[in-house]
Amino acid sequence: LGLTGDQRTYHGKETTRFHTVNVAQPVRFSRKCPTGWHHYEGTASCYRVYLNGENYWDAVQTCQRVNGSLATFTADQELRFILAQEWDLEEKTFVRKDQRRFWVGYQYVITNRNHSLEGHWEVAYKGSSEVFLPPDPIFGPAMSEKENVLCAQLQCFHFPTLRHHGLHSWYAENCYEKSSFLCKRSQTCVDIKDNIVDEGYYFTPKGNDPCLSCTCHNGEPEMCVAALCERPQGCQQYRKDPKECCKFTCLDP
C-alpha cells in the first residue's frame, strides 16, 4: 500500500506530509457509543436515558428513531450495570429526585382480576432473544381498571449507596402515563469527530491517533491502516492538529 502527500504552507498555515503503513494489530478505541450513551461490553450495547416525559408508545417510537428500542435485559449482570450508572439526570423529571422511574421494554398482561390481580410479564417485542423477565411488579397508582396490558417502569435510586447496592423496583403502570425512559441500541463505530459510522465504511476511530483509517465491522474497527507523518520542513516549532491527520500549524515567528 502506498499513499503520499506533500502540502506545505508556512506562516501559520497547515502543512501536510505523510506516508502510510499497514497495522496488523487490532486497534482499541475509547468510544463505541454516540455522545450521551453508556457502553456495556457484556452485551456490546449502548444505553441512554431520555428525560422528556413521554407515554410508553411515544417512547417506543423515540427509541426506534435512534436505531434502538426500549431497553430489555439479558441477565442480572446487565441490569446491575444499568443500576450502577450515574445517568445525566436533570431537575425536570417526573418523580421524586431520589427515585427515578424509566419505561423499559416489558409489558404486564393481566389474566385474572378476581380477588387479586394475576398476570405475567412479556417482552414487548416479539422474537426478542432476551431471557430475563422481571419479578412480580408493584402496581402503579395510575393503573386503570379497564386496561389489561400494563407497561414496565424500572425504578432506580439516585443515592450512591442505594444505587451501588443494586436496590430497585419494578412497576406495572398505565402505558399512557408520561415518564422518562431507557433506550438500548447496538454498539456502533463512532469516528474521531463523533459521527456514527455505518457498517463496512472507512473511518478514523475516536482515540489518540487521527492518522488511523479502519473499516467498521460489527461496531469495531478492523483492517486499520496508519499514516506516519513527517515533521514539517522549514519549521522549528509546530502544533499537530488533534483531529486531522498530518496537519500541522507552524508556530515560528
From TrEMBL:
GO terms for cellular component: membrane. Residues 42-184 form the C-type lectin domain. It holds the Pfam family Lectin_C. Coiled coil: none annotated. Transmembrane segments: none annotated. This is IDD protein. It comes from Copsychus sechellarum.
